[in-house]
Amino acid sequence: MILDRLDMAQRYCSLHPGFRPAFEFLRSADLAELSLGRHDVVGDRLFVLVARGVGQGRAGAKLETHRRYIDIQLALGSNDEIGWRPTSTCERIATPFDADKDIMFFADAPQTWLTLAPGNFVIFFPDDAHAPLAIDGELRKIVVKIAVNWP
Fold this sequence. Notes:
single chain
């Protein structure tokens, strides 16, 4: 897991070939004006999901993990609170892995909580279980999905 400011994103581009185009998109697009839904950047290898929802609070936020995609998450306009725990330490599967949706949920509690402020981003790799939308209140956010296996 990596938490940093969007203006510092350049330092992470060498970690994965999809990070450079992802961060270029995030810095060049008018994020506040993006419509809800999916926006393809590089087909299924790199796409952006814009969502609006109501937070579930810490008690309602569920740890999730992905196998095929790395997440870069940004909150727009207000903070998001996100739980984190290494996937390798999760022991209680709440929902088995769904290959079509690339998601698995755990009933374990996060080990730590982080506040994602507007202008900051967090990267979650497949070995990072994360529980987003742990805030109380409404949130608009962006999730960039980057294929782990980048040809």
